[in-house]
């Protein structure tokens, strides 16, 4: 047991002192139990029969060196890390006199009780980079390490209390238990998506999930594609080499898209050398013939077609809906052949073109090939009775017309503006027309059409539109790959700006203006004109202007700020909203207020009003 001594008292030949002897044991509950007792130790001399009294309630005689007056054993619970003190003074003295008194003060720190600590150990559990050990003090919260271990193919989830357990603590979490522990990294294997692309077919398998380090059995489902055999799966849409068969093992630890690889199983029928000419009933070619001599070669897949079903010739006028037809070849074992056949039954009117189609059908499918039988060519023709002339076609209506049946006057088509003859720019084959149909605006315009190569409704071409009898802009557009572009506007000198609105408005929250046309209709945008306003009247001075480009308004509709400056140290800060309909401008509740502080200035918005809006 440990000891602590009081002061030594007595004579040069005879001395004694109080002794406290103590020990402590951990109670494992935040306290140590301290056991202690007192006695008097004679260190020098020859005290004989001397009586002493003690603070622990004993009176005794001392006779020579040795220990005397041992007390009972006392106990006291002292918290971890605290100091052990007696609380009250322990003393011994001569009974008769205070001269010799040895004591240990009650406030004296006899000893400091140890602090209880615990060790937290980290285990990477298959990974690497686990944090170093940490020390936990009893009763105090420990902040766990924020360091996270790593493991190839896995994602760290947190810390568990066993190698196979679940997450108990996150990295950096609080640890409050008063116990040592080993924390194990908890891992989740990474997963990867395997996608399938039918690559022109249908019925691709659904996505699958591949887990790191675990072999994935690919789907056994196979896509389908008409006239093709499925070979397997490749790693790109252009792959010709099979990388994986259906149901094969996929061991890669990465996401992947697998593309179906196809092998042609069937070729559609082919027609070559197709020609159609007007002729007589005997097949003699004639420009005014009302029969057609149709000549062509045909061929089917000799291996996979399943045999010929038929070869059919059919014809009709472009505006008709139904076809006339004749069978040129009816089935048989042949896989190719040549056809020369007269069709039409003397009913192919020389005034019209006719669409002619060849349809070759086998057991697997069919293919259609087309050619146009042209109308008879006319240099000039006169209508019976003498009141109709047509150039380049048969005269069938009154008036002077070209080969497209268009009325002409002074070189321009359709100047008589009759509903019967008005032309549509979308379909006209005329070089120059005047019309109000499908024009950039509602008025009459000259439309000039420029064809590329052939002159037909489906040909690529460009058009220019010029106002007929009014100021305005020129427009252009083009027809390409079966569709018209929008009309593109070109600014003229007489059309550089337009007053869209005029008035006097603060443009507060209850005020808005609606322009007669979109700001996107103008080549550049719009201009706002503000002026001074005082004592209930707008003045034509202190003008402020704001220009807004159409490209900005087209890309970013919404709110815009405008800084306005006037004499008398007036400053204005207006806020307007440009709505998505491209014609409405709305105000803001602060646009008519005064003495607003902000941005280091005082704003008097009530001194400025919107006066005009121009399109430019």
From TrEMBL:
<dbReference type="Pfam" id="PF09479">
    <property type="entry name" value="Flg_new"/>
</dbReference>
<dbReference type="InterPro" id="IPR042229">
    <property type="entry name" value="Listeria/Bacterioides_rpt_sf"/>
</dbReference>
<dbReference type="GO" id="GO:0030313">
    <property type="term" value="C:cell envelope"/>
</dbReference>
<dbReference type="InterPro" id="IPR013378">
    <property type="entry name" value="InlB-like_B-rpt"/>
</dbReference>
<protein>
    <submittedName>
        <fullName>InlB B-repeat-containing protein</fullName>
    </submittedName>
</protein>
